[in-house]
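Hi R.,

Here's the input for the S-adenosyl-L-homocysteine complex you asked about:
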Amino acid sequence: MLNTKKNIRNYSKNELIAVFAELGEPAFRAKQVYQWLWKNSILDFYQMKNISKPLQIKLDEHFETYTTAIDITQISQDGTIKVGFKTYDNESVEGVIIPSEDRVTACISSQVGCTLSCKFCATGFLPRKRNLFAFEIYDQVNLLNKLAEKQYGRGLTNIVYMGMGEPLLNYDEVLKSLYLLNDEEEGLGFGAKRITISTSGIVRNIKRLADEGLKINLALSLHASNNDKRTQIMEINKSNPLEELLEAFKYFYEKTHNKITYEYILLSGFNDSIEDAKELVILCQDFPVYINLIEYNAVDGTPFFKSKKEHRDKFLQTLRDNNVAAKVRKSRGKDIDAACGQLANKIANQTI
Ligand code: SAH
Ligand code: SF4
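And here is the predicted structure with S-adenosyl-L-homocysteine in place:
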């Protein structure tokens, strides 16, 4: 028999109210169900306590609640946990939980694979299969939060969209997911200031995001301080050149005053000279920005190596001498390929 059930988790609240109206159910019932789904993460209609039995049965007849599940987990020597999720249609994506003294950060994916193919990134070598839906982004956070509570005795404090995929090329679903995570009344109530979106730099959508008025942080995967070098490693820079990108970030800053970070992977002999650092300083003059210098994590099949410590230190010092706020971001979970840019569905199961 053809399955005509609709995925109830694809509706916004207003859409759900409209669908309920077609079924002869009042708006307040739709709101109750919506709260169960998103605030309480309850997907079984029969567990929705203030919903009558006849309505539970009706919901079961008309709707599905597509689910995402943890497929495999792997734990690093440093406590970082890498999680392989299976989507409802059997695709694989990955998330990571990174514990530190004062935080537990979840790194989540926004696409199956990635639309782009940056030359240094393992995810870029995967085929892009599809965008994730908002509910699948929400599911990753929800599942990682439960796992963090179980494993470390404390839940997530921060969320970064730095897993697989380019979040701003899945704009609508990523935006919906932000509301689902952030909404106090009807979502997980996760503070926007604790959420960071990382982008390879999609000019038009950085501006759109600025206009949404959310208090989220934005990170740019910059990785080079001139167009020539950036285009060599990130093809997206051809259509979204640095001048336009920085202008879009300036717009984002002026609109929101939210925190902006530039991520810069130090690649030995490519972008780690003092001249590169000085060029980078020039890009940091227009509005407050923090630089995260990232140690390159080896990816098979790329021509890149991480910078020598001595070059990294000089690079950092040059930025600081020129009053640019910068730090080196420690790499976590390297032994299990859970570090930035290493997510490529290589995962070995471990019971934790
Ligand atoms: N697509 C988005 C978000 C995911 S990538 C983006 O590109 O920003 C998350 C971060 O990991 C980005 O800053 C990315 O440039 C960086 N990264 C990719 N490959 C890496 C590698 N091999 N070593 C270290 N960082 C890497
Ligand atoms: Fe995609 Fe980001 Fe990797 Fe580039 S760095 S291929 S945009 S995930």
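One thing worth noting: The pocket of iron/sulfur cluster (ligand 2) is lined by residues 114, 116-118, 121, 123-124, 165-166, 200, 221 (CB under 6 Å).

Cheers,
M.
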